[in-house]
Fold each of these.
Amino acid sequence: MKIIDYDISGEGVAKEEGKVYFVKNALLNEEVTVEILAEEKNFVRAKSKVIKNENPNRAVPQCPYFFKCGGCQLEHMNKCESLLFKQNLICNTLKKIAGIDVRVEETVASDKDYHYRNKSVFVAKVYDGGTHFGMYEEGSKNFVEIKKCLLASDGINEMLFFVAQFFEDKPERNLKHLMLRQIDDQILLTFVAQGKLNYLDSFLTIFKANNFNGGVYLNFNSSDEEILSGNFQHVYGLKNLTLIEDGVAQKIYPASFLQVNTFIKEKLYQKVISFVNVGDEVVDAYCGSGYLTYLISTKAKSVVGIESVPAAIKAAKQLALSKKQTNLKFVLGDVNDVLKGQLNKTHLPTIILDPPRKGCGKKVLTMLADAMAKRIVYISCSPISLAKDIKLLLSYGYSVKFTQGYDMFPNTANVETLMVLEKN
Ligand SMILES: C[S@@+](CC[C@H](N)C(=O)[O-])C[C@H]1O[C@@H](n2cnc3c(N)ncnc32)[C@H](O)[C@@H]1O
């Protein structure tokens, strides 16, 4: 069968005898014979067995876990193919969900395609008398032990190795996840646990003895809905990472948001700032620790950042104080609750939206339209949520002026999209 398209996770799509096939490890225009993995009424899940007419953009996956682990989806494509895949993904999703056919600029590449992540979360699993760390297979809860992740920074991999070695003969049954965050030589570990950890004290003894420039947190979470709960306990060492950019020191706590790929973040932020004019009154909803908000304040008349995580807003306020930026303000709260009050203090504001994966939703978008926001600069990590929100904004009299993908997550099927809308 011939691969005629890609689905949203980068699997090849083929059609035969009225059925749609989703084929793993198959690129556009390739002729493949497949092994069937699962057969449903209208579609079939399969993987390629023999490939004829290899697509010239096929690449050899670098990671030994690629065909098992669900962490990456696109290592079998070269950079050119994966950037094009992401551009088409944005375009097609907007067509399908928002009903618009807009020009999508070429996807902006990351300066690094491997070892770019400053945060990684590993699943913990007890077997063979020890605790092992890894990921799940794509779309399942089947555990795959990972010794090294090619997307994670070197520092994260070194700490993963250290932690895995310590626990290899220690069955830590309450441990669910290990989150590692790294900036320069600083590292923060968060053990996500559903109860008391029996080996924590002996781990801390050995962690201290190694003189890492790091800190350790516990996160108690008995629910399986989210990886982290809001219940953090600092148990040793650094309380936060310090990220210094352009002479600005930002404090990053375990729950604080930080763009995960430092090797593209600046390009995205500079583009956002290019859509802010001198004299603009700006509201930066979902502002995280406020670095982008600060950058905007160096250009705009005024800017207020809104964020619901207390540690992030505390760090943002410290940043504003240290830079003595009087046109910069931060507000702690849920955007749904506090946005209206902030919009009431502005005149024809420019809005920056960078919501979590699920998007903004009707309440927030209606408030923006009511406040006559003149321009909306929307950053999204989910083309589907973006398209749903855009559909609503179009119905409120906005039109799309600019759309571009940023390869924030190379080798995976995820893409960050920047979209600019203006009031008609
Ligand atoms: C994708 S991040 C964007 C952060 C920031 N723009 C940046 O570049 O670092 C989304 C942020 O929104 C915050 N958030 C999520 N839901 C929120 C809500 N309902 N109200 C306020 N902030 C929220 C999260 O804590 C997170 O910091």
Amino acid sequence: MKYGYLRFIRPLVQGLFFVFSLYIGYEFYLFYSWAIGGSGDFHPRPPGVESFLPISALLGLKRFILTGNYDMVHPAGLTILLAILTISFLFRKAFCGWICPVGFISNLVERMGHTLRLSISVRPWVGWVLSIPKYLLMAFFIYVIFIKMDLHAIEAFINSPYNVAVDAKMLQFFLAPSNTTLLVIGGIVVASVFIGNFWCRYLCPYGALLGLLAMIGPLRIVRDEEKCISCKRCRRVCPAGIPVDKRQSVWDPDCIGCEECVSVCPKEGCLLPRLGHYRLNPLWVPLLAVALFEVAWLVAMATGHWETMVPIDIFKRFYAVMEGFAHPSY
Ligand code: SF4
Ligand code: SF4
């Protein structure tokens, strides 16, 4: 198998991004501790923490589209969202398959299910039914943000104390999860042992949006029917449960561009990614996706679209009283 090495590279790349996410979370924890007076040592606020605020970033995106004004409350969040949308359009959901830390954990649990021989395959129609919640959630967010909220409401939300302090609220959510949260997370982990990538395939509204973009994008995994020996290895390893061995071209919104299928195909040149008319070496997909992610970060840094314009004193002041901030309702 010419591209078998991809199966080893993917967890490595995912693992690196996962560790980096933990590092950002820890740096933010140090900043937060300082800001609420729990520690005397000042730590700068890591802008990357805004990657955990996708809804705020979507609001920033709408304002950017309507006015051209960049969200300078959480600019890194908007930059990361724009990078992820571009990656998803160009390289399928390679963000989910190669970069997302939740996707990494999901893959680890999936592998555990395979190792323990507990994983089961889901019939396509069952998969579609199970996918309904994530599309409903996505439709809800799209409706509220892009239809119901006008520019005035968007501006009010972006500049609200709630939005400024939402990073700390998110941290509290992780530091002190409620029993309900723990039960839901535990349920998803258990479900993921039996049905690989349960969260990503059936519940993540962000992934649903990225999948729709990937569907209209130019990258496909293409199967050469004349070379195919119908061994079904591609279907068995696909974390999205796609029947790759039956497809001439994989366009499914659930395809995460992981290329597990390509890596196990025994017939050289039978299964390859194709960008428009060009067949690609599969290594280019993660290389270009990660490069685009990094370039977005560098450009944002160089042009002043990475660091927030909110003064540190405001963060301190809002964190001190954020318990009283309710989510703005529209
Ligand atoms: S079709 Fe291939 S690239 Fe897409 S999710 Fe399945 S294994 Fe990954
Ligand atoms: S792994 Fe390759 S040869 Fe086997 S069924 Fe899939 S595409 Fe065909």
